[in-house]
Amino acid sequence: MPFIEEVDLLELHKDIDKAQLMNERLLDQIKYKNKELKRKKRQRNVLGVIAAVFFLGTLVFTSFSAGLSTRARAFNSAENNNILVSIDSLDVIKSRINNLKEQNEELNFVNDFYLARNILEKKVIYSVQVKTFVDNNVTLVSNSLANTLFVKNNPFYTYSIGNFETIEEARTFRLQLVKMGFEDAFVASYKNGKRLKIENPN
Could you tell me the pTM of the whole model? Predict the structure, then answer.
């Protein structure tokens, strides 16, 4: 076996102690660096999580804002469309109201006509007879003429103009017709669509 001298042995122990100290320092540095790396890694992870949360929050916020603005635009657009539809609807409704007013006026006229006919049929009225026919000459008669009478007195058909409440009105109208050339015209009284009698012309 080889011999080591004491001086060499001491040197060797010193070198070993130095190496152990250096190892301990290196281990401490490694531990410190590992702690620092772990801390940085944790910070990086926390920062990454914060960035991800911020990014997701921003994404959600912009999506929500875009959704709200889209909804608001859609709502405003729908509201504007409703307003346009409402304006169009108002024009249509006004047009329909005007048409209904015109129809109502026509119906009132027809109602007044039939009401007048009913009143005339129940009261004694005076009319000026201008023509008598043997045949039923319907071409001279129109049901839409309120002031005409077309009465059947077997075997004749009589055509009278004017419906008057008083005999004086009928006589005045007869004189105008005589001046126009209807010299045979005379005043007759009617009730319920039938002639009662021929009235005195004076």
Answer: 0.40
